[in-house]
Amino acid sequence: MRLESASAYNTPARLFHWITALLLLVQYVLAWTMPDVHRDTKPVGLIAWHLGVGVAIVLLVFVRLLWRSMHAAPPEPASLPAALRALGRYTHWLLYLLLIAVPLMGWANASSRDWSVTLFASIPMPPLSPTGSPVGHALGDWHRVFAWVLLALVGLHVGAALFHQFVLRDNTLARMLPSHRKQAATKQ
Ligand code: HEM
Ligand code: HEM
């Protein structure tokens, strides 16, 4: 069996992971610094950036999931109790679900406001709800609520990574870090 599939996430999986994490960090900073959105707000400046980065996140997650469907995650350390293993897996799939649902809800809300949504401020994206749609309007509230749920889950996830690293000391974090392959390869 190839070392990569045995003990570490492959390079694209690690790149997808850290680019998503970076974009998500930027996205929360944008969300909290952009002006409040009201009925007559125009999607310019930081708001336009929030829409553009959000669309980039959801498209990236779709590509990432496509890649993931073709490459299984490396097996967890054998020492990990079954309950913790299951908790980790459920958390990861819930993270993926929210990484799709949260931006789509924001996008539907933007469409209901008749805002044009573009990728990289240039490529036009289709509307996800009709202008003035009550569902699109309500999804704006859910977008904000689930953005907090996503953040809480990321907090749990990062806490788990640190628990693995400093309490269980089971090398889990290294599976997602760039140095892993080099370290492991030198042991071969
Ligand atoms: C994972 C990606 C995203 C995250 C984490 C996120 C996070 C947030 C947060 C925290 C707020 C609340 C800001 C505040 O009121 O303080 C917000 C508002 C908003 N976001 Fe996003 N967002 C994401 C993607 C998107 C996308 C893709 C769009 C549209 C294309 C979008 C459109 C909006 C809109 C229109 C609002 C205002 C909603 C309202 O107040 O009714 N967001 N977002
Ligand atoms: C900031 C947003 C983050 C998101 C949305 C996120 C999401 C994810 C997802 C979905 C997976 C599962 C990968 C798969 O099996 O397909 C994963 C794995 C992993 N993440 Fe994150 N992550 C984030 C940040 C972090 C941070 C800051 C750390 C380190 C402190 C971290 C450490 C890890 C580790 C070690 C794994 C592999 C777990 C394992 O081998 O079972 N993540 N992450």
TrEMBL record:
Pfam families: Ni_hydr_CYTB (PF01292). Its cofactor is heme b. It is found in: Cell membrane. InterPro entries: Cyt_b561_bac/Ni-Hgenase, Cytochrome_b561_oxidase, Di-haem_cyt_TM. Residues 9-178 form the Cytochrome b561 bacterial/Ni-hydrogenase domain. Keywords: Cell membrane, Electron transport, Heme, Iron, Membrane, Metal-binding, Transmembrane, Transmembrane helix, Transport. The chain crosses the membrane at residues 47-67, 93-110, 145-168. It is a multi-pass membrane protein. It comes from the Bacteria. SUPFAM superfamilies: Transmembrane di-heme cytochromes. Belongs to the cytochrome b561 family. PANTHER family: CYTOCHROME B561, CYTOCHROME B561 HOMOLOG 1. This is Cytochrome b. The lineage of its organism: Bacteria, Pseudomonadati, Pseudomonadota, Betaproteobacteria, Burkholderiales.
